[in-house]
Design goal:
The chain is α/β, with parallel strands linked by helices. The chain has helices at 14-29, 42-52, 86-91, 103-114, 136-147, and strands at 3-8, 33-36, 57-61, 75-78, 95-99, 118-122, 130-132. It has one domain (6-126): 3-Layer(aba) Sandwich (Rossmann fold). Helix 1 (14-29) packs parallel to helix 2.
C-alpha cells in the first residue's frame, strides 16, 4: 500500500485548507492512502478530500481515546503522546507533503528529514531539503515522480 503523510496546521487558513482538500482528492484518485495527525485544519481537509474519492485515511491521534479525530478519519491510532506523535506521523508515510504549518509542522519536517524522507512543501517553512511546490498540480506531479509513472 502506498501511503503519504500530509502535515500542516490544525488552524489552517482558507488557502491551505483548499490545497490540502484537493491534494487528498488527487492522492485517493491514484490509490494512495493518507496519514496525518487526524485533527482539524490541513489534516481534516486532506482526509475530507480523500474520503470523497473513496480513499483510506489514517489519523495518528494525540490522545488515548481519539476524541479529537476529524469526521473523515477511517483508522484512528490513539497514542496518548500529544505532539510527541509527530515522528510517527511522518515515519508512517513513504513521503511527506507539508502544507503551511506552524511549530508542530516544523518539528514534523525536521523528523522527516532526519528519517531521510522525501518532503514536498507548499507555502511552508523554508528549510533546506524540502522540495518546494507552487500549486496543487505541482505537488501531485512530484508525488507521481516519487512513485514513478503509472500512479
Amino acid at each position: 500500500m502506498r501511503l503519504v503523510s500530509v502535515i500542516g496546521s490544525s488552524n489552517s487558513n482558507e488557502e491551505e485548507y483548499r490545497t490540502a482538500y484537493i491534494v487528498g482528492k488527487e492522492l485517493a484518485k491514484r490509490g494512495i492512502a493518507v496519514v496525518c495527525g487526524g485533527r482539524t485544519g490541513v489534516m481534516e481537509a486532506v482526509c475530507k478530500g480523500a474520503k470523497e474519492e473513496g480513499g483510506l485515511t489514517i489519523g495518528i491521534m494525540p490522545s488515548y481515546d481519539g476524541h479529537e479525530a476529524n469526521p473523515y478519519v477511517d483508522i484512528k491510532i490513539n497514542t496518548g503522546m500529544s505532539w510527541n506523535r509527530n515522528p510517527i506521523v511522518v515515519a508512517s508515510g513513504d513521503m511527506v507533503i507539508a502544507i503551511g504549518g506552524h511549530y508542530g509542522t516544523l518539528s514534523e519536517i525536521a523528523y522527516a528529514l532526519i528519517l531521510g524522507k522525501y518532503v514536498v512543501g507548499y507555502k511552508t517553512h523554508d528549510i533546506d531539503g524540502i522540495e518546494k511546490a507552487r500549486s496543487t498540480d505541482e505537488i501531485i506531479r512530484k508525488v507521481e515522480e516519487f512513485y514513478g509513472q503509472g500512479t
